[in-house]
Amino acid sequence: MRVKQNFFVCWIFFASVNIVLGQGQNDVLAEINDQIEIIDSYTEFDTFYLDSEEFLDKMVDHGAELNGYYEHERLKKISRKIGTQIADILTTFYFWNDQLIYVNYKQCPYMETVNENGQKILDYSSFFTKYESKHYFNKNKEIKKSTMGKPIDGVSAQKDFVKYAGKMKGLLDNKYYNRDLYDALQGKWSFIENTADYILFEGTMRFNFYNGRFANRLKTRIEDNVMICVFPGDNKMYRYRIDSVNEDMLILTDLSSKEEFRYAKLE
Hints:
Layout: H1 2-41, E1 46-50, H2 52-55, E2 64-71, E3 74-83, E4 87-96, E5 99-114, E6 120-127, E7 131-138, E8 141-149, H3 161-177, H4 179-185, E9 187-191, E10 198-202, E11 205-210, E12 213-223, E13 226-230, E14 237-245, E15 249-254, E16 260-265
Antiparallel strand pairs: 1-2, 2-3, 3-4, 4-5, 5-6, 5-7, 7-8, 9-10, 9-16, 10-11, 11-12, 12-13, 13-14, 14-15, 15-16
């Protein structure tokens, strides 16, 4: 009899715990939905974008876009489009207090059309949603997921949203918070000691030209007035202190060799 009583007491205890945990998660989900609604109600975002070269290591078949939406100097939302060979992959990330709270992910295959020769081809401007997943996060952990449809064959659904969102947020934040310095760097700069050498800044990308010919491209980020340059897909870093930049002159110092480089603005 006592064994049955102990079992009943334990059952009541665990049932109560599950009810409390369920209520707690429901409260968190309700709060996240309220936060999503607030973010979607904003009408005056500061919108910043990254070109495909700024956030992709490899180019895709039909282009890529990534936009960040800022309100009161904080990133609230990221929209990303990746154009694969057969579909657009659309992802929207929501942030609250700099933490990822929600992701909406869609796989949208292109519609077929018939060309003037009667051949079936893909219309890259027309698509439909074949697969969609919704993900809720609390303290960098997924707490709820729902899906609709089936993933497209040959297209792998993204999984590690927290890590990827953090990386994209870092790229956007760097461009946003250093926007004045990036704006000053934009354009073509000629190396004063050899005018056939020059560098070109487009967004956060730096392109090097030697003897008038393209040599390489680097992704850049700015931290405490230091320009950090990396080759896409490579972890090796090159650091240059930005000593001065204005509409006429750019002066950089290689923090490894301590060598100074002076450039004149061309365009």
